[in-house]
């Protein structure tokens, strides 16, 4: 009888782990559990809707379920008691649930209306079923953060409707973008440009935007080759002129306070030449993610891990991806992390003295579970509903997802 | 004929395509699939036809799994006279300046070291309408036919 592995989180880390496990040992019983009724996590809800090429990894992940025998258990949130149950029934349990909460700036005024966090905004823009309503950003936006998420948001906010053709940006988000009257976006990093976390290629892509004028203030110099690529990419943006949306890159500014009477009106920074206040109708923060109020106490699990670096929390319990390492690294880094953990898990399974555990019987037939076949029905409905200039129209509510997933093929007369 | 498919990958897409191409060719040929990270310049053999499937990463660079190979080629001053290869690239035209730069770098590297390219490099665009295999399967059968003529072996 083969060993059974449960992976909590069907995002890229979980899927790459399943892939590496099944490539090495095709007979393993691998199950991917997700709290959402749909798989693929941040590939679906974090990769920007105009980066469909990046989402192409989904074709690899689909094979897990379509050819390699992995099973999907969607719409199942794993809390402490269920985790215990999984550990009792699977030979290995891996936590790959990511990090979904926005990090806070930790400054006065950040609870003011008009302060919008990147995770909350991307969930709303990307039709996540747990999203809040889309906010009104006003004319002047300060975007705090210099990672790729910040650049994604900057690009989406500055794109013209034509530039979103072929994406899967939804109707509500498309209409929202069209009604925003953003004139100025100031993107601010604490670090100098050379130490910014964004990839140079993401910055270069901004140069293709038709409706913007870009100004880069004090990008500085560096002898570090990686930093130099970033500075060079920024320098290339000064040729992007003539559009009505003004984008200004600022570096080396640390936010001190969000100020305003009942709503954000300005953001105060400290910088190399003293304090500075930038007038803003909204403050958008994209400074990373952390564990939120989740059914699993991630931080406690990771700090108490037996071998955190190797992804071992306790015998038979592992962690990978952002859940283990924190919110750093793109898809390839999480693939490498998952491959390393797969090697470790296979080595551990090979020397397990106990008989194989029963595995998926503990989950099969549970009420409300969405199977891979259920997801395929949702996927087909989304693809079929796409308008001419979109590749997909995501279903944005759990209720609709569940209705589709559990629908019988033939309508009952 | 003896065919080795060498792939350079970062997200696994090129690896999957390499395996799919192998499955297409296996009925008529002896096919091996190897990650470039597990391949040394001294492993090249004049009797084998090499299909190289390579993505692009970052700013038109080679993907991570191809980088050690490129470094080893340069360091060893590899001599690949008599080695025949063909190349298929994976890229994303969202990044138009450097679109498919990885596979072009690999072709340049092979040719610089004396290898002979069979057929033209064919490239796939992740942001385009085609599936990679719909371009790669016809490419593979065409270059394999050309290689059979050039290398003087019946399929």
Secondary-structure-derived class of chain A? alpha/beta
CATH H level, superfamily name of chain B: Flavodoxin domain
What sort of overall outline of chain B do the alpha carbons produce when their principal axes are compared? Answer: globular
Shape, principal axes of CA atoms of chain A: globular
| CATH H-level superfamily of the largest domain in chain A | NAD(P)-binding Rossmann-like Domain
CATH second-level architecture of chain B: 3-Layer(aba) Sandwich
Distance between the termini of chain A: 44 Å
Structural class of chain B: alpha/beta
Tell me what portion of residues of chain A adopts beta-strand conformation.
Answer: 15-25%
Kindly report the CATH topology of the largest domain in chain A.
Rossmann fold
| Approximate helicity band of chain B | 25-40%
In terms of quaternary structure, the protein is heterodimer
Number of strands of chain A: 17
Q: Element order, helices and strands of chain B?
A: EHEEHEHEEH
Main β-sheet, spatial strand arrangement of chain A: 3-2-1-4-17-16
Can you characterise this structure?
- The complex is a heterodimer of chains A (413) and B (155).
- By secondary structure, chain A is α/β, with parallel strands linked by helices.
- Chain A has two domains: 4-100 and 291-406, NAD(P)-binding Rossmann-like Domain (Rossmann fold, 3-Layer(aba) Sandwich), CATH 3.40.50.720; 103-288, FAD/NAD(P)-binding domain (3-Layer(bba) Sandwich).
- Chain A contains 14 helices and 17 strands.
- Chain B is built from four helices and six strands; from the N terminus they run E-H-E-E-H-E-H-E-E-H.
- In chain B, strands 1, 2, 3, 4, 5 and 6 form a six-stranded parallel sheet that branches.
- In chain B, strand 1, helix 1 and strand 2 (30-35) form a beta-alpha-beta unit.
- Chain B starts with a strand and ends with a helix.
- Classes of the chains: A alpha/beta (413), B alpha/beta (155).
- Chains A and B meet through helix 3, helix 8 and helix 12 of A and loops of B.
């Amino acid at each position: 009888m083969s060993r059974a592995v449960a992976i909590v989180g069907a995002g890229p880390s979980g899927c790459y782990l399943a892939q590496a496990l099944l490539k090495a040992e095709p007979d393993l019983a691998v199950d991917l559990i997700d709290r959402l009724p749909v798989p693929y996590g941040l590939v679906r809800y974090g990769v920007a809707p105009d980066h469909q090429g990046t989402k192409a990894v989904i074709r690899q992940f689909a094979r897990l379920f379509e050819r390699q025998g992995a099973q999907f258990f969607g719409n199942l949130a794993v809390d402490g008691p269920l985790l215990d149950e999984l550990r009792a029934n699977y030979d290995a349990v891996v936590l790959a649930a990511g990090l979904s909460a926005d990090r806070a700036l930790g400054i006065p005024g950040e609870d003011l209306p008009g302060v919008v966090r990147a995770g909350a905004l991307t969930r709303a823009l990307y039709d996540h079923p747990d999203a809040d309503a889309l906010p009104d950003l006003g004319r002047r936006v300060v975007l705090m953060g210099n990672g790729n998420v910040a650049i994604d948001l900057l690009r989406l906010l500055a794109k013209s409707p034509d530039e979103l053709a072929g994406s899967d940006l939804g109707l509500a988000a498309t209409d929202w973008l069209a009604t925003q009257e953003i004139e100025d976006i100031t993107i601010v990093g604490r670090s100098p440009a050379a130490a910014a976390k964004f990839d140079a290629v993401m910055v270069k892509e901004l140069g293709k935007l038709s409706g913007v004028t870009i100004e880069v203030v004090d990008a500085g110099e560096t002898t570090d080759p990686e930093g130099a690529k970033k500075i060079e990419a920024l320098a290339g943006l000064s040729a992007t002129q003539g559009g009505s949306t003004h984008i200004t890159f600022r570096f080396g500014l640390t936010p001190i306070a969000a100020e305003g009477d009942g709503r954000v009106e300005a953001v105060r920074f400290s910088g190399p030449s003293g304090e500075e206040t930038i007038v803003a109708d909204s403050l958008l923060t994209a400074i990373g993610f952390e564990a939120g109020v989740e059914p699993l106490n991630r931080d406690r699990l990771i700090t108490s891990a037996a071998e955190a670096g190797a992804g071992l929390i306790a015998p038979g319990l592992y962690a990978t991806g952002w859940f283990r390492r924190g919110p750093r690294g793109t898809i390839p880094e999480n693939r490498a992390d998952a491959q390393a953990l797969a090697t470790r898990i296979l080595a551990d399974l090979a020397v397990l003295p106990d008989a194989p555990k029963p595995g998926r019987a503990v989950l099969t037939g549970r009420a409300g579970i969405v199977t891979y076949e259920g997801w395929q029905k949702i996927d087909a409905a989304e693809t079929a509903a796409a308008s001419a200039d979109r590749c997909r129209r995501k279903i944005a509510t759990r209720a609709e997802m569940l209705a589709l997933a559990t629908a019988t093929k033939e309508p009952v007369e | 004929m003896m065919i080795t498919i060498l792939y350079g990958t970062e997200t696994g897409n090129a690896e999957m395509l390499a395996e799919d191409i192998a499955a297409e060719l296996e009925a008529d040929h002896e096919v091996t699939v190897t990650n470039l990270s597990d391949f040394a310049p001294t492993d090249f053999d004049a009797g084998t036809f090499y299909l190289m499937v390579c993505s692009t990463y970052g700013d038109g660079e080679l993907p991570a799994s191809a980088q050690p190979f490129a470094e080893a080629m340069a360091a060893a001053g590899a001599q690949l006279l008599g080695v025949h290869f063909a190349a298929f690239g994976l890229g994303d035209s969202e990044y138009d300046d450097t679109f498919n730069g990885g596979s072009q770098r690999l072709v340049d590297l092979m040719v610089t070291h004396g290898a002979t390219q069979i057929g033209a490099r064919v490239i796939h665009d992740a942001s385009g309408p085609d599936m990679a295999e719909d371009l790669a399967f016809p490419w593979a059968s065409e270059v394999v036919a050309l290689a059979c003529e050039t290398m003087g072996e019946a399929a």
